Amino acid sequence: MRFLPLPDGTMAPALGLGTWGMGERGANARDEAAALRLGLDLGMSLIDTAEMYGDGGAEEVVGAAVKGRRDDVFIVSKVYPHNAARKKMAAACERSLQRLGTDRIDLYLLHWREDVPLLETVEGFEALREAGKIRRWGVSNFDVADMEELWRVPGGTACAVNRFYTI
Fold it and tell me: What is the value of pTM for the model shown?
């Protein structure tokens, strides 16, 4: 398995298991968790999920899959943009932690940008990191202008990653 260094020195798996489409039908949850466990058994160690996938159902599937082996898995989850303000982010993170059945998220991302000021978002992420709820934070789907603005915000340079998707 290939690993990539994060800014804090953590070596993160370069390839992981995605959960988009999981958790949408409760009848499939057992099979979906089994598929994730098989991936872990075969050497994968990163699982990517989000509060929006299956309206939280994907995080529940991940929680079932990692039960008893949490320390062997690097969990990435994402917060909705409308939950990016400090108080809403804290509540969203708590809900995610409950669904995941864990006390921490290894990498917590802003799923995409909307209209919450970046300073509020950074303050929310930093409060969660300081509380031990998340290990590090980042963004997803930011373009160059968004990243340049983020880096100008106090604390914005603590951003660990930008997961940018192209199709």
Answer: 0.95
Give the CATH number for residue 55: 3.20.20.100
Active site residues: 53
Helix or strand holding residue 140 (H, E)? strand 137-140
In the block, tokens 């039908």 appear at 25
| Distance (Å, whole) CA 22 – CA 15 | 18
Q: What's the total number of domains in the chain?
A: 1
Residue 56, token pair as written in the block: 């939280």
Instruction: Give the list of residues 6+ apart from residue 19 with CB closer than 8 angstroms, or none.
Output: 32, 36, 47, 48, 49, 50, 53, 58, 59, 61, 62
Which residue range is the domain that position 119 belongs to?
A: 3-163
39-62 residue pLDDT tens: 999 999 999 999 999 999 999 999
Question: Rounded to the nearest 5°, which phi and psi values hold at 87?
Answer: -70, -45
| Cα–Cα distance, 71 to 44 (Å, whole number) | 13
